[in-house]
Design goal:
single chain, 162 residues, alpha+beta, Nuclear Transport Factor 2, Chain: A, 7-stranded mixed sheet
Length: 162
């Protein structure tokens, strides 16, 4: 379960149609729904339900060919081919996964080159529910997500989040 959620934490960070990319806010100080990371995670939630949803071409909507997904200090995928393969494996192991939107917290760097986020992921593997708390950032290049660097912990938020 943990490996599925760790992989999802990272993916949840990489894809949007070129026209939609142009609509991303340059900077923001609270969660928004139209930043490239939120749009990619929305796409990801839908793609997970489609056995053919994770393709290199689909990831290219949101990420350059050389995108990197790093979770807990380990590169889980390098490039869109690797991203697609990584998440197809997760599809075979988990019966359900959802990256919760909107993010609990999110803001951009002052220059708009990074999106920092705290978000939650729910998943079901072998009939057992799992929950992750994920925090980190995505680096943007040319309006696309070039790197995801997240820390992911199993668990649910404490009472301070309610």
């Amino acid at each position: 379960m943990k490996m599925i959620l760790i992989g999802l934490a990272g993916i949840a960070s990489l894809s949007a149609a070129p026209a939609a990319l142009a609509q991303s806010p340059a900077t923001f100080s609270a969660p928004v729904s139209n930043d490239v990371l939120s749009r990619m995670f929305g796409w990801w939630n839908s793609a997970f339900k489609d056995p053919k949803g994770f393709t290199p071409e689909a990831f290219l909507q949101y990420s350059p060919d050389d995108a990197v997904m790093r979770i807990n200090g380990v590169d889980r995928a390098k490039g869109v081919v690797s991203l697609a393969e990584h998440f197809r494996v997760i599809q075979t192991r988990a019966s359900a996964v959802e990256i919760k939107l909107p993010f609990v917290e999110a803001f951009s760097s002052p220059d708009g080159s990074k999106i920092f986020t705290y978000h939650l992921i729910d998943a079901v593997e072998n009939g057992k529910a799992g929950h992750e708390m994920v925090m980190g950032y995505a680096t943007l290049r040319g309006g696309k997500i070039s790197k995801i660097d997240f820390i992911s912990l199993e668990g649910i938020p404490g009472p301070f989040m309610k």
